[in-house]
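EI: anyone free to look at a 250-residue chain?
SC: sure, send it
EI:
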Amino acid sequence: MVDLHNDERLDYLLAEELRIIQSPSVFAFSLDTVLLAKFVYVPIQKGNLIDLCTGNGVIPLLLSTRTKGTITGVEIQERIFQMAKRSVEYNALSEQIKIVHGDLNDMPKELGHGKFDIVTCNPPYFPTPATSEKNRNEHLAIARHEIYCTLEDVVRVSSQLVRSGGKVAFVHRPGRLLDIVTLMRAYRLEPKRLQLVYPKQGKEANTLLIEGIKDGNPDLKILPPLIVYNNDGEYTKEVQTILYGDSKED
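SC: here you go
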């Protein structure tokens, strides 16, 4: 049994044999988050991984299917932290996944500098919202806007947490690409892999995935573009495979 609050529901997590607690009024995971969880390099047998701005814990849950390493998720919002914690407990993954309630800016001091092999983050994309927008739904405003952390905070903290030679991966908007690359290099995270995501063929990219190595050598690889939808509005075969594995039929 799982304890659900208010409008929470227990959803299946894609093709994985996992369930996740979601709430339409508080937090539900997005395609961006899933793409980041599938994009990032993950050591299979061991490792120490951390996901910042973890939300309801979708990235730690998905990473648990790819690695036997230990995974930490960090979430600042108490309500969403509790959702993530209950999802981990429901899936009997408390031995592998730890959810921490706190500000990511405090994590290097609390968890240690250079203690992680992999850092992931799907950060807030947008500048601080107007007061009226924040008041309308504070949970969503905090998740989407730079209220408690800026892009520089995210990059700086990621660099502090990851060991030299470790990897850091972000998902963001293409309009911030130059800011992201500039900040990554300023904090010793050398960009190594970049992929742009397009909603449809012929449309502008609306998502970017980028992975860097702490103290790495310059050598950026641009991956093939990822197209999300066919012209008929269905997921492309590549995205179907990312989301559901190879078993889903066309």
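EI: The mean pLDDT is 89.
SC: 👍
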